[in-house]
C-alpha cells in the first residue's frame, strides 16, 4: 500500500473530511496563501513602484461610496496607492515573516529540546533556565531594543531593506522556548521506551537515536504547535509594525497598513485600517482553527468518539 492510500485510510484524513470547520479553514488559508504567493500576478498595481504613488489620489474611498472609483476597488491609502494591491503585497510579507519566524524557532527549539530531554542533568537545567530567562523578556521589549540599536547604527533606510529578516530573527529568537519545552516533554516520555533501549543495545549513537528514533515520535505535538505559532508570529509582526518597529511604509505588511491608517480612521478614512484588519483576522482565525482541529485529532485523549 503506497503512502497516498495509507493517508486516505488514516484517521487524520477521516477526521478532516468530516469536519466542516477544518475544511473551511484549510480552504481559506490556502486561498490566502495562493494570493500571497502570486501577488505580482494578482494585484492590479505594484505598490512598491513610485509610478503608482500619487498623492492626489490619497484616501480615496471604496468604489461603492461617493467619491470612489472602480479603478481602486477598495479605495486608496494615505499615499494614494491602490489599497487592494497594497493589502495583497502586505499579506505576502506577513505570511513570509510568520512562516520564517516559525521555522527559526522550530529549528532552535527542536535541537535544544532534544538535547535537553535526552541528555538531562546539568545540560537540561541550563537550557531550561535559559528558556525561563527568555520567556521573562517580552518580544516587544527585545524588538524595541534591537530596533533602536540597528537604526542608530545603520540608519532608517538600511533598516527598511532588512526589515523582513530582522523581524523573522526577533520573533524566532523570542519564541523558541515553546518548542523546546514541548519537545523536551515528549523526549522524556519516549527515551525510556523499549524501542529506544533496543537502539542503544544495537549500538546506535545518541545523535542517531535522537534524530532517527525519538524525533519522529514527537512530531504530532510539533505540528500542532507550529500551526498555532504561525498565527502568533503573524500577530507578533502585526503588533510590531503597528508600533512602528516593523515593516516601513514603503514595503507595508498588514500590520503596518493598519498602523498607517489608524490616524485617519476618525477623519472618515476607515477603510485604510478596516480592510487590512479584516484580512489579518481571517488569516489568524483560519490558522488557529486548523491548529485546534489538528490538536484534537492528534491527541487521542481529547477524542470523544
From TrEMBL:
Native species: Flexistipes sinusarabici (strain ATCC 49648 / DSM 4947 / MAS 10)
UniProt GO cellular component terms: plasma membrane
Protein location: Cell membrane
Official protein name in the record: ABC-type transporter, integral membrane subunit
Keywords: Cell membrane, Membrane, Transmembrane, Transmembrane helix, Transport
Keyword field contains Nucleus: no
Location (main, coarse): membrane
Domain ABC transmembrane type-1 per the UniProt entry, residue ranges: 91-291
Membrane topology, record value: Multi-pass membrane protein
Keyword Cell membrane: yes
Ranges that cross the membrane: 21-43, 93-118, 130-150, 156-174, 218-244, 264-285
Family to which this protein belongs: Belongs to the binding-protein-dependent transport system permease family.
SUPFAM superfamilies membership: MetI-like
Tree of life domain: Bacteria
Amino acid at each position: 500500500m503506497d503512502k497516498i492510500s495509507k493517508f486516505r485510510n488514516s484517521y487524520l484524513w477521516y477526521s478532516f473530511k468530516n469536519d466542516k470547520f477544518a475544511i473551511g479553514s484549510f480552504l481559506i488559508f490556502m486561498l490566502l496563501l495562493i494570493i500571497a504567493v502570486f501577488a505580482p500576478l494578482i494585484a492590479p498595481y505594484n505598490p512598491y513602484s513610485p509610478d503608482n504613488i500619487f498623492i492626489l489620489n490619497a484616501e480615496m474611498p471604496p468604489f461603492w461610496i461617493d467619491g470612489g472609483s472602480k479603478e481602486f476597488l477598495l479605495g486608496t491609502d494615505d499615499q494614494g496607492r491602490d489599497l487592494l494591491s497594497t493589502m495583497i503585497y502586505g499579506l505576502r510579507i506577513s505570511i513570509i515573516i510568520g512562516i520564517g519566524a516559525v521555522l527559526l524557532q522550530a529549528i532552535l527549539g527542536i535541537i535544544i529540546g532534544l538535547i535537553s530531554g535526552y541528555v538531562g542533568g546539568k545540560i537540561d537545567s541550563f537550557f531550561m533556565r535559559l528558556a525561563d530567562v527568555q520567556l521573562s523578556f517580552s518580544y516587544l521589549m527585545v524588538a524595541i531594543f534591537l530596533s533602536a540599536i540597528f537604526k542608530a547604527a545603520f540608519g532608517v533606510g538600511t533598516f527598511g531593506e532588512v526589515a523582513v529578516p530582522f523581524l523573522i530573527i526577533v520573533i524566532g529568537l523570542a519564541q523558541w522556548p515553546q518548542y523546546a519545552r514541548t519537545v523536551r516533554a515528549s523526549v522524556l516520555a519516549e527515551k525510556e521506551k523499549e524501542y529506544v533501549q533496543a537502539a542503544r543495545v544495537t549500538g546506535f549513537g545518541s545523535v542517531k537515536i535522537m534524530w532517527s528514533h525519538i524525533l519522529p515520535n514527537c512530531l504530532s505535538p510539533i505540528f500542532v504547535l507550529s500551526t498555532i505559532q504561525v498565527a502568533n508570529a503573524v500577530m507578533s509582526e502585526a503588533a510590531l509594525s503597528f508600533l512602528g518597529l516593523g515593516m516601513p511604509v514603503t514595503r507595508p505588511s498588514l500590520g503596518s497598513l493598519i498602523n498607517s491608517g489608524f490616524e485617519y480612521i476618525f477623519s472618515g478614512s476607515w477603510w485604510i485600517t478596516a480592510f487590512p484588519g479584516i484580512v489579518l483576522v481571517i488569516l489568524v482565525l483560519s490558522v488557529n482553527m486548523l491548529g485546534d482541529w489538528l490538536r484534537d485529532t492528534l491527541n487521542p485523549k481529547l477524542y470523544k468518539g
